């Protein structure tokens, strides 16, 4: 990280700051003000005034527009970067507003009404609106294919779930999937190439995952968690069975499909056979493995004359076994099951960052190509991680005035600029600068070493 002069603190509403998709600008929402700045020179390009407190904003994919919303009052306003006098405003009616997002073509806005009564598709060009009805109430995210050509929606009618696929150029229904007679659909996810849709049931009597091909227009794979009991094809020796399907994510190349269960298990499926290739159980004891690295945060007492009497460092531990700290019961909602809340592949797809609520101060970084781990054993609960969008480089945040930087070669502890307590971050698309976000402030931080 750079040790150059620290940038000034930026006042924001609830972490509302982000770079445009092309990286040329970044936006800041502060009270009712939307400030657009240049990413290079940091000068103000535009200052827009919203009609109320800004609770949400989002850049369009073409970086030409930015929408602002007050969710409580169901007000949305769209601003243009190149035509600042142009505005588009809409107010949702009696259905209310649950969430809002851009369509991939940057020409439409999609709003999800309260209680998921309907999805409304608003055209910026002619102000026409199209409605999609009966979205399943537990789904609060719209699932566009990565190429932007399709929208998959889980709908529920008479206690039967199905999937409707819409073409985004016309917003007309192109396919309805019954999904292998699944009575309940608990998750869907497009593959990186936009050709496959993974569909899973987590809680019904028949827990399974189906892989549907939009090119062949049929199912091409099915996985039952009980398949993990057969280790004949696994590249590891674990004998545990995946309990349910909690979360699913694709490797960026699409060659592996990773999923988590409700018993601290992770399974990686081969994209050809759709059978388990690797699996991991989050064991609370780190055992001997010469490839594994364990980085532990330590606090060192410094001289009384210094500003901070304590200094935080990361130290690599060589002794084994190492016991992983288990979280307090109060850290987990008593009405819910402890789960994986960080489960993210690196840009290159070789590494998978993992955190489970049972072990809130520990991060597993799994090298899935060589099947070994780096462990980050920290003092405070991990609240977020952010992979660099250009290389294997990870930032880890713990709701304190320190952050942690990991690369395959080393891990370090760094004081945050101006002692800001960082909750999250936004990378510039080029991976050379990052916006560090606190409760109501942010700061731009430059990355020095690009190796």
SSE inventory with pairings:
Layout: E1 10-11, E2 17-19, E3 25-30, E4 33-38, E5 44-49, E6 56-59, E7 65-70, E8 75-80, E9 87-91, E10 99-102, E11 108-112, E12 118-123, E13 129-133, E14 143-144, E15 150-157, E16 160-167, E17 172-177, E18 187-190, E19 196-201, E20 208-213, E21 218-223, E22 247-250, E23 256-260, E24 265-270, E25 276-281, E26 285-286, E27 293-301, E28 310-317, E29 322-323, E30 340-345, E31 351-356, E32 362-367, E33 372-377, E34 384-387, E35 394-397, E36 402-406, E37 411-415, E38 424-427, E39 433-437, E40 441-446
Parallel strand pairs: 27-33
Antiparallel strand pairs: 1-40, 2-3, 3-4, 4-5, 6-7, 7-8, 8-9, 10-11, 11-12, 12-13, 14-15, 15-16, 16-17, 18-19, 19-20, 20-21, 22-23, 23-24, 24-25, 26-29, 27-28, 30-31, 31-32, 32-33, 34-35, 35-36, 36-37, 38-39, 39-40
How many helices in DSSP terms? 0
Q: Which structural class do the helices and strands define?
A: mainly beta
pLDDT average, as an integer? 90
Instruction: Detail the poorly predicted runs.
Output: 1-6, 229-233
Order of strands across the biggest sheet? 28-27-33-32-31-30
**Outline:** globular
Radius of gyration: 23 Å
Gap from first CA to last CA? 12 Å
Number of extended strands: 40
Top keywords for this entry?
4-stranded antiparallel β-sheet; mainly beta; 46% strand; globular; 451 residues; 0% helix; disordered N terminus
